[in-house]
Amino acid sequence: MRQVTVAAAFIVDGSDRMLACRRSDGDQAGFWELPGGKVEPGETPEQACVREVREELSCDLESLWALEHVEHDYPDFHLSMDVFCARIAAGQEPVSSVHDELRWLSRDELMDVAWLPADVDLMRNLQTWWGAIFEEH
């Protein structure tokens, strides 16, 4: 089975919310995801996360730290995803060129959107860790 290695950002703000992005095209259009994308050859997952967020949301990240690792089998590939917690650089607002909607979600709203299959268990775990994530950062 083909393996796809990606890096994604769990972007938090100063008011206990995280950024969710709805895919606008492809087989998974309409599902929600964390911003991010494929790790290119010679690139670390951290570098890929920063680059992908800059490309997708036209903003820079700060305070990047490892949060979780996800392995998930889709019908035609295996996903290996490193997830990093981060904040958007001061004074910047995300504007997506690849998603049709961005939404800041609170802990109570986290499961109100249709997440990609690989993200569902991650979001359930993040609900449990929510307080620790926001206390620490």
TrEMBL record:
CDD domains reported for this sequence: NUDIX_MutT_NudA_like
Alphabetical list of Pfam families matching this protein: NUDIX
Family: Belongs to the Nudix hydrolase family.
Name used for this protein in its record: 8-oxo-dGTP diphosphatase
InterPro entries, alphabetized: MutT-like, Nudix_hydrolase, NUDIX_hydrolase-like_dom_sf, NUDIX_hydrolase_dom
Enzyme Commission number: 3.6.1.55
Organism for this UniProt entry: Granulimonas faecalis
Recorded GO MF terms: 8-oxo-7,8-dihydrodeoxyguanosine triphosphate pyrophosphatase activity; 8-oxo-7,8-dihydroguanosine triphosphate pyrophosphatase activity; 8-oxo-dGDP phosphatase activity; 8-oxo-GDP phosphatase activity; metal ion binding
All copies of domain Nudix hydrolase, residue ranges: 1-127
GO biological process: DNA repair; DNA replication
Keywords, comma-separated and alphabetical: DNA damage, DNA repair, DNA replication, Hydrolase, Magnesium, Metal-binding, Mutator protein
Taxonomic classification: Bacteria, Bacillati, Actinomycetota, Coriobacteriia, Coriobacteriales
Reported cofactor(s): Mg(2+)
Catalysed reaction, written as an equation: 8-oxo-dGTP + H2O = 8-oxo-dGMP + diphosphate + H(+)
Family matches, as Gene3D superfamilies: Nucleoside Triphosphate Pyrophosphohydrolase
Superkingdom as given in the UniProt entry: Bacteria
